[in-house]
């Protein structure tokens, strides 16, 4: 079967634009999603499935494709094309990837001739870094050649080509939607109408849960880990006993596909959504309690407040609704975003709700009044970094539109737009006294700015690759920068001169932070380690190990006694600065991209790459 332009896939979520090409066993299409963004969809050629050599192994070939697609989806790296979705269409497994316009490396070499040595070495390093991650995920690329390397803004992107990958290790089969149990010991994954349970600690398969007659769209664990709920295109929700694998109850009442499920924290209730209706169910009796109606388009996410009294729903009608769980009544409709909402997060005290949208804005809402407190917009591309001034009056944002914006935090009003970087701005930071702020960019430079006037003071050069993180010392005398060149540089803020280059990491440095007394610097790296440095001498003090993936964020407590580190392994670790030993490991929903202590050190917040925020209180 060949899909023609205009054909809709996955319930209308993707529309075929044209066929891009065919390989040995696969075929690729250019498609458009509901937000009019271009995507590449790969699937298996039916001629291969029906070939005499494969006719008896069709199911295995399909499942192998799904397995590899999901493993590739777990390879998050700046130089690997990202997998967005995995689904089945007409019994053909499909993988959706981001679309990379432009030329491939072979075309560049043909056009330019021999590449300069520095440029060639840069490509080799970036491709090597990408392959390192791929190998860590148990995969092997067997068709790595210049024509398979796409260039995005002059940087190589290793494409996902399922027929050219093979498994190196025996990794369990997982596909489609996944969910991790609260204790992190069990993983549920979905392939069509079947749910697979695995041990998250050993990777061993436990059992399958079968009973749905159509695709399973979402799964969720109860907070105590005893139950799993699943929603399906067969218009039902099923509740499962995790210990036995037995179905406890089938919840019927929706008249359309059920897309999402969420448990309240205290378990007796869970919520489900089907197109524009939400239902609240009693877990113990299987009875429907309320139906929440009011959204005019697909409801795509649900979240309970920490006390279970409020349910928030986000919809493709660009609104958020807050519901009273006990009465079933709508409390507020929060409107203001102009595009699909990406994520919701409640504050720990339940007073505020933050929402992020594909309209490139972040909004903060007061839950007592339902009023929007502030909106930050104005960038023409994704925002990579935010930093508050120490007095909380100002907010700085760095964007892929190559600019930095300074905002009034209370009103959301833009004060300055700062230009000068020639590529994405990856990191921004304020000095403690609020006089300066700095920006680090993919253009390999750091710029120091006067916060009062918005004027550039210095451009700091010396790194060989992109700047991933910057931080001021508490006294404002020093600035540290971490880079993809695997080094940290320490700069004199008054003169703009480099003081030290700190070497020792074997991969990108993603995060740097000073202790409150300014005597110690911490760095987190893609080599999975954290290093502690003596700022006065530039010497390494400790190397902290324990994370199983990239360390993406580091933060000191205000008293300097503790260090928090966030990692792509979905954990936050707390370390004693007295002993260098790990104290606690805290779990998150997804790769942890940011960690921060409250000024008094009593609270720790961590955000993941899916927009979820967790807050811990020191007991």
TrEMBL record:
GO molecular function: ATP binding; protein kinase activity
Matching SMART domains: S_TKc, WD40
The keyword Repeat is annotated on this UniProt entry: yes
Pfam families in the cross-refs: Beta-prop_EML_2, Pkinase, WD40
Domain Protein kinase intervals: 14-332
Sequence ranges of the WD repeats: 209-250, 251-291, 292-333, 334-375, 376-417, 418-459, 460-501, 502-543, 544-585, 585-619
The organism's place on the tree of life at top rank: Bacteria
Keywords (A to Z) from UniProt: Repeat, WD repeat
The keyword Repeat is annotated on this UniProt entry: yes
Protein name as it appears in the record: Protein kinase domain-containing protein
Species the sequence originates in: Nodularia spumigena CENA596
